[in-house]
Amino acid sequence: MPIINRIAEFHDDMTAWRRDFHTHPELNFQEVRTSGIVAQKLREFGCDEVVTGMATTGVVGVIKGRGEGGAIGLRADMDALPIEEDTGLPYASKTAGVMHACGHDGHTAMLLGAARYLAETRNFSGTAYVIFQPAEEMGGGGEVMVKEGLFDRFPMDRVYGLHNWPGAPEGIFLHRVGPVMAAVADIRATITGKGAHGAMPHRGNDPIVIAAQCVSALQTIVARNMDPLENAVVTIGEIKGGNAFNVIPQNVTLRGTARWYLPEVGDLLESKVRSLITGIAAAFGAEAEVHFDRMYPATINEESSTGLAAEAAKAVAGDAKVEELPAPTMGGEDFAFMLNVKRGAYLMLGAARGADDAMPHHPRYDFNDNILPIGASWWATLVEQQLPRRD
Q1: Overall average pLDDT of the 61-73 stretch
Q2: Whether the Cβ atoms of residue 164 and residue 349 lie closer than 8 Å to each other
Q3: DSSP code, position 325
Q4: Which pTM does this prediction carry?
Q5: Same structural domain for residues 311 and 213?
Q6: Last residue of a domain, one of 296, 319, 343
Q7: pLDDT tier for residue 356 given thresholds of 50, 70 and 90
């Protein structure tokens, strides 16, 4: 079947919800307004139970079908990013320095659409749990929900997630068994040298020069320490040091990220990041304090769940619009914490309107509202296919 007709009928409603969320973005664990609206709508839709306050601002809606059966979880994220919006849209963010630059506003609206349909039709047996998670963007909200007993309190057989994907044509579903997104680490290092006048460098120990050596050396980890057939990234994205053009500072800080799939690769990256930075600093007679904080594990799709997700996608979009993701991405996703303890899968839904579309985490990014009924229909179809009515 194509997009579910009933869901298509409230496409305009989903668009209005999405744009309202976009206008009023909230950062991780601060999604008070967003989660309040989500909870209110779930109650209006007639969910059998609405639980709030998980992981501070998380919401779970419970929708019971017609008769006994299994259970399935559907998860969307709600948080925005600390980015100043530059879209000029009439529904642009009204909160300075915060915007929905990754499409979580759309994910939330799609899952609300699926919840409305499921609560209205009950065309399944068992239970559907709609999970609205806070703090995906480096807040670890998924991990917090799991630790607070998400799967104990709401026992389910499988859990599914979906992300809009502007890198693929509108309406294309992308799936993949195994790793689909990378593990993530936050790298922070402080190099302490000795400050001096810029015209008298021999009287100091320049941490800027040392930091520059570190940045270059870190790029050899992947290039010269890893199997070329494996995947990893080490990036330094922030350097801070000094306040005047003619003064050698006392300290320089580096901050960056590492990404990988296999646990042993993460161990190698951590070991080499630490040894290179501390070793280079010591060679220059300076000191370095290094932190390698592992934030998210790799997002790994379970095989049977991925197959079921692909079948639901084919029912919604047709076989020709369901493709295998040719390779995992190096982006991170804290849905990984849920997949670490529960069978499930994470799919991408193509959202490209044209070649010039801004990608996620860009100040001119905007979610494609055309895919709202497609995503909502996929979530609803997952439930109806995996929990068929028995009456």
Answers
A1: 96
A2: yes
A3: -
A4: 0.93
A5: no
A6: 296
A7: confident
Residues 43, 161: one domain? yes
- Give every CB contact of residue 334 below 8 A, 6+ residues apart in sequence: 135, 136, 139, 140, 141, 142, 143, 295, 296
* Residue where a domain terminates, one of 247, 262, 296: 296
In this predicted model, what pLDDT tens digit does every residue of 83-131 receive, in sequence order? 999 999 999 999 999 999 999 999 999 999 999 999 999 999 999 999 9
pLDDT band at 391 (very low <50, low <70, confident <90, very high): confident
Looking at residues 336-365, what average pLDDT do you find?
Answer: 95
247 & 351 share domain = no
Residue 290: which of 341, 253, 322, 320 has the closest Cα?
253
Query: Which of 384, 312, 337 is CA-nearest to residue 77?
Result: 337
d(CA 373, CA 371): 6
Q: Which domain holds residue 291?
A: 183-296
| Tokens describing residue 125 | 């047996």
- Burial of 9: CB neighbours in 10 Å, binned 0-12, 13-18, 19+: exposed
Judge if 174 and 315 occupy the same domain. Answer: yes
Task: Extract the tokens encoding 340.
Answer: 């670490």
Which tokens sit at 216? 């270059």
